[in-house]
Amino acid sequence: MELAGKSTPSFSEFSPFIIPFQGEVIAGIDLEFDYSLGCHDVLLSGSVGSAKSLLLAHVIVKHCLMYPGARVLIGRRTLPDLKETLFALILEHLMDENLEEKKDYWVTANTGKIFFKNRSQIISRSWADKKFKKLRSLALSAAVIEELTENDEQDSQAFFELKQRIGRLPHIKEKWLLCATNPDSPRHWAYKYFFLSKEPTRHVYKSRTEDNPFLPPEYVAQLKRDLDPKQARRMLYGEWIEIDNERIYHSFDSDHNYIKSKYEVDLTQAVAICFDFNIGVGKPMSCAAGQYLEAKDEFHFFHETIIEGARTLDVLEELASKGILDMPVKFKIYGDATGEHKSTASIHSDYDIIKKFLANYKTKDGRSLAFEMCVPKANPPVRERHNVVNGYCLNVENVRRLFVYESCKVLEEGMRLTALKKGADYIEDDSFAYQHVTTAIGYFVVRASKDRKHKEAMKKAGF
Fold it and tell me: What integer pLDDT is reported at residue 461 of this predicted model?
């Protein structure tokens, strides 16, 4: 298997002495751990870009080459994520002048397996289906779990099932379960297991973004622009701090992000109309209009349409009656990816209804509308959406780039009060009507932010 654009050091190129924590972990595994005590649990608690995954790849390959007949499991909650991240990085790390595919190792990409000529192997597993018992048939010398904090209390069973499978190959001295993650809440079971224990077989190695000298300065600068102060403490500085136990949009401050005046629309820029589709008691069809001013990297929201029990067509007619669609601008449509499915009130999808309405609409001065559908194939992860919006409300450089105007009273309330559902996984509490319009603008903010970054990357590459 060939990987284009290789930037990862190969196995023989890797040096553990440049990034301090990498050398500390390897020294622990090779020299310091007392394996007579059993399996050692290791947590790599590191910020974004601190090279945790590269270290994982190196330690895994090293173990397989050093111990003939070794069997290392690499795991993540979902297999597609694992194959796109750690498995792909291992393959890139194996692109070494001293290692030849189909001679020194063989790859079965569809199942995520790698076999070495010394009989060692790397196997991939996931457990999003909650079938943890399927791990019980394994005999392992070591295991790795990527993104440990993706796993909630119930998913922690995978960790403990795997730990019991390690050490079943008695000819191999090393016995370890290596986990990597960005810091999370100190309420998370992983924090309690690793940080609050005095067991001699549990080890925590911390790393920070700034520890990695290979990161380009613009990458770190971008993180500082995108992350809100609390997220920066986690994702840049490696702190396990509480963020989510109160309201979701903790960076939104009504004294600074809520503008008690009318917004003057910039007629040289597109107007975004973003949707969250709902029909049900307490779950209104929600729509907001706003602008993304790319030169300033700012979002401004100036109109909301929120109607209980409404159809998509009702919302469009409301936008028309308020004069929103008569503005001489291009319109961009953002929203919930599920709107591509059939509407609950029609044989057509919500976006089919929107496209037909906008295509047939004539403004008061007789113009046809210029519009573009900017709908994703899949919604962004909920946590990502929250993090991006918070970063625009206030970032670590103390800059605010998201503003809500006086006509958006429900949106302002939602930004202040929306919280997570109690006693559940990371899910928004949608029992309050104000929550849905915050979701609508979140789809827009995430998509527009990604489009800007893509445009900047293409420009830098000379396209």
Answer: 78
Claim to verify: residue 280 and residue 175 sit in the same structural domain:
no
The domain spanning residue 415 has which CATH number?
A: 3.30.420.280
H helix or E strand, kind and range, residue 330:
strand 330-335
Domain boundary among 164, 183, 214: 214
Give the pLDDT confidence of 326-351 residue by residue, as tens digits. 999 999 999 988 766 555 444 458 99
Cα-based angle 447, 310, 408 (whole degrees, multiple of 5): 55
Give the whole-angstrom CA distance, residue 228 versus residue 415.
Answer: 15
Q: Domain tally for the chain?
A: 2
Total-model pTM: 0.72
Which carries the bigger pLDDT value, residue 181 or residue 281?
181
Residues 180 and 190: beta-carbon distance below 8 Å? no
Residue 5 lies in a domain: no
Q: At 125, which CATH number?
A: 3.40.50.300
Same domain, 187 and 320: no
CB count in 10 Å sphere of residue 463 = 7
How far is 260 from 241, CA to CA, in rounded Å?
33
- Both 304 and 389 in one domain: the answer is yes
Residue 162's nearest CA partner among 332, 329, 42 is: 42
Q: What is the pLDDT of residues 98-114, one digit of tens each?
A: 999 999 999 999 999 99
Both 193 and 333 in one domain: the answer is no
Structural domain of 79:
20-214
Q: Which of 189, 72, 65 is nearest to 124 (CA)?
A: 72
Report the amino acid identity of residue 429: D
Beta bridge partners of 334: 274
For the chain, helix, strand, coil in percent to 5 are 35, 20, 45
329 in any annotated domain: yes
Which whole-number Å values give the CA distances from 88 to 2, 180, 271, in the listed order? 10, 16, 40
> β-strands 113-116, 105-108: how paired?
antiparallel
First-to-last CA distance in the chain?
Answer: 28
Amino acid identity for residue 281 in this structure: V
| Residue 306 bridge partners (DSSP) | 286
Confidence tier at 1 by pLDDT (50, 70, 90): very low
- Per-residue pLDDT reduced to its tens digit, 34-48: 999 999 999 999 999
CA distance 139 to 436: 48
Answer for the pair 163, 39: CB distance below 8 angstroms, yes or no.
Answer: yes
Query: Alpha-carbon distance 404 to 249, whole Å?
Result: 13
